[in-house]
Amino acid sequence: MRTARLTRPIVLAAATAAAAACIAPAGAGAAVQHVVQPGETLWTIAAANNLTTRTVAAYNGIPETANVVLGSTITVPTTAEGAAKLQEAGLVAAPAATSPTAGAAPRPMGGYTVRQGDTLSGLAAGSGVSVAQMAAMNGLSPDARIVEGTVLKLPTGAPQPAAAATPAPAKKVVPAAAPAPTATRVGAHDVQHIAQAAGVSPSLAAAIGWQESGFNNAAVSSANARGVMQVMPGTWDWVQRNLAGRRLDPNSATDNVNAGVLYLKHLLQQTGGDENTAIAGYYQGLGAVRSRGLFEDTKRYVQNVQALRSRFGG
After folding, report:
1. How far apart are CA 147 and CA 205, in angstroms?
2. Which residues form the LysM domain (predicted)?
3. Pick from 63, 67, 259, 300: most CB atoms within 10 A?
4. Buried b (16+ CB within 10 A) or exposed e, 297-308
């Protein structure tokens, strides 16, 4: 098990309110800008993001041995972006398409982008839940008017609305709800430290965090999940009321991890420590796992997370 120690999160120097509304695909995130701090090297920046020095160097078009300058800006890519750059530069071979450890993150369950004419009540009725339930899940008021392009979570297993067959709006809208996506990255050690303090396997929590967002707190999925641990607004509210024991900061990447880890711990308790079922519950929802069994995407998600654990010392 990798030693758990708290490291300083890598934070964008020029975070703006507009950045909070950016959509980043779950499990992939997006490259972020990092301003070099005192004592940092290319190696420490890469290590904090679970990347190799070669990957960060190639992505920035500099030699692996380059000395980074205090105050300069380095672009930190996601794993997928870094791998693509290494392949483009001829530094590594393209991975085999059938590689079991290179599986892409399954699409978020229940993700839907609002089309013109959609209403919260109509979507709730089509999903077989009340307006209040649909609103709570997404951090909305029951009488909220949803606008075209809003990303929402529909109940797991609910049929897609008929409008889903039409092209989704190009502009995505993230509902104003906690937790807020902020332009912040954390390192694996941050997630592992929080998990260890909560009595959760550090490697398991880190693997889920990486699978969900690449440790990118700006990530917002097509199902309205946010931050490092891709916490839904409804889940955030439930964790705050039932598990947290203190006020969680909705703008904090660290507290996004705290919320995700507390929820993961709850799932492990509910499943008697069965890690695979808890992982499945984190993705599909434990109620749906118990009533419907594991969907194929859920099986792939569990396999991906378990495969990632060795990367984080477990």
Report:
1. 34
2. 32-76, 110-154
3. 259
4. ebbbbbbbbbbb
Whether residue 144 is contained in a domain is answered as: yes
Query: Bridge-partner residues for 73, per DSSP?
Result: 35
Instruction: Specify the CATH number for the domain of residue 65.
Output: 3.10.350.10
Measuring CA to CA, how many Å separate 275 from each of 52, 127, 130, 157, 264? 29, 29, 32, 22, 10
pTM score, two decimals?
0.69
Among candidate residues 40, 81, 148, 212, the one labeled active-site is 212
Q: Answer whether 59's CB lies under 8 Å from 75's CB.
A: yes
User: Residue 127's domain spans which residues?
Assistant: 111-165
Nearest Cα to 191, choosing from 83, 297, 309? 309
Distance CA 188, CA 6 (A): 9
Q: How many CB atoms lie within 10 A of CB 4?
A: 18
In a domain, 3, yes or no: no
* Sequential pLDDT tens for the chain (314 residues): 333 333 333 332 233 233 333 323 333 346 678 888 888 888 888 777 667 788 888 899 999 888 999 999 998 887 677 777 887 877 766 544 433 343 566 777 789 999 999 999 999 999 999 999 999 999 999 999 999 999 999 998 889 999 999 999 999 999 999 999 999 999 999 999 999 999 999 999 999 999 999 999 999 999 999 999 999 999 999 999 999 999 999 999 999 999 999 999 999 999 999 999 999 999 999 999 998 899 999 999 999 999 999 889 86
Neighbours of 14 (CB within 10 A): 9
Residue 196 lies in a domain: yes
Q: Does residue 296 fall inside a structural domain?
A: yes
Q: How far apart are CA 173 and CA 190, in angstroms?
A: 29
205: nearest Cα among 265, 155, 136 = 265
